[in-house]
Model the fold of this input.
Amino acid sequence: MIDLYTWPTPNGQKLHIMLEECALPYRVHAIDIGAGDQFKPEFLKISPNNKIPAMVDGEGPDGKPIALFESGAMLIYLAAKTGRFMPEDVRGKYEVLQWLMFQMASVGPMLGQAHHFRMYAPEKIEYAITRYTNEARRLYQVMDKRLAKHAYLGGEEYTIADIATWPWTRSWKNQGIEIDEYPHFKRWFEAIDGRAAVQRGIGVLAASRRPIAGDKERDILFGATQYQKR
Ligand SMILES: N[C@@H](CCC(=O)N[C@@H](CS)C(=O)NCC(=O)O)C(=O)O
Done:
């Protein structure tokens, strides 16, 4: 059995979707990041960077439990465990891995900053808004160009590269994106949105999500609580 420590944000949703797609049995443990659960010592033991998602698979590769953090590593692990959503041939595998790394290194961090400065920052900092909105638009263009030639980001099959990227693009409006300007991306977005496992995945803990409200929550997510020595 897999124990998943998560919250309904894009990084958590990648794992909800993957586990649903693979029909693997899993138990959900809610880590309310607005309430500060990510700083509890028992969570930091499996996720030292105080971020969701993290997981413990009771049946690791050697039959013993294995704990993992970082959503990209977790997706690679689950693809290897199930033999799904990753090509078997070496060339195809690296094709997928490079698009997975593109999500981890660029799509997540840059769209996250665009969202932060456009929606959450207490002051409107024009320089930061322009910088990250432009960067978001550039990344959607990169994806649109790739998807003009291929059905999915990693090639012709739906893989962990798509599972990692899709949840980040659900809030395209808040990132300053006009989806009709990226028709190939839009076709891909809608195809993935139509998958039953994807809908089940984004339903996990969905009722618990709430807008960031109040100074305490801001302090936990973006302020002094983050920077305490632990
Ligand atoms: N690179 C990490 C990023 C994870 C991440 O940023 N998680 C956010 C939610 S989407 C989080 O847990 N934030 C809580 C915090 O920073 O205290 C991954 O892909 O797993």
In short: The mean pLDDT is 97. The longest strand covers residues 2-6. Residues 55 and 208 are 19 Å apart (CA to CA). The radius of gyration is 18 Å.
